[in-house]
Amino acid sequence: MLAKRIIPCMDMTEGRVVKGIKFKELKDAGDPVELAAFYNEEGADELVFLDITASYEKRDILIDVVSRTADRIFIPFTVGGGIRNIEDIRQILSHGADKVTINTAAVKNPNLIKESAGIFGSQCIVSSVDIKRVYVSDESEAPERIVLETPEGKCWWSIYIYGGREEVELDAFKWCEKVVELGAGEFMISSLDFDGTQKGYDLIFLRELSDRVPVPIIASSGAGTPEHLLEALTIGNSDAALAASIFHYGTYRIKEIKEFLAKKGVSVRL
Question: Is 31 designated active site?
């Protein structure tokens, strides 16, 4: 059995790590390179850097931060935000990142997934998917959408780009199935409904997606307790659990989370 991964996420803007609620109300959480070095020592399995305003501001990602981080850590790290083309991916990987995660550019040009996977390998290409529930009274209101029952009512999941600022009304499950066919090697699923709430992940979406795609899934958005990560890895059947606030502000330590998971029978690297 492959070990489940625990991944701190660093959302960045203007060179600083920030954290908000539902992609808004951003608060400073520290220096990205120093935090990365800290998590490397803490026992994180991987790291994720997301320059959350780069695509919206139409600017390059902070390559200097990527390079300085690569000099300080010895675990894999993934970088996303502001990626527009093959050269952007080449720059990020050549400066020390192990993987890139792509959302906005892939939605606008799906062939970018196919082309980049062909050049760099599917293992380097993570499809970042920002989702939001769209509630309906019955399936007829959402033709050609995959509608599921939730405790809050029936809904389908729409895709958002530009750091959660723009809806594109793609069905999230169908989009994920398409990008797997194009060559994406992994998913990172972030929920605008659950982000920063510390009330748990969108388990219904995660579980359904795990039944539909053959590649690893990183659960993101909503971690508030060790139990939430446990649920993402078991009920949600995700391969990794990503969290931000609970680590950045010292609510829980990575070792503490892993020991809790191990006691519950989850395979983790201690």
Answer: no
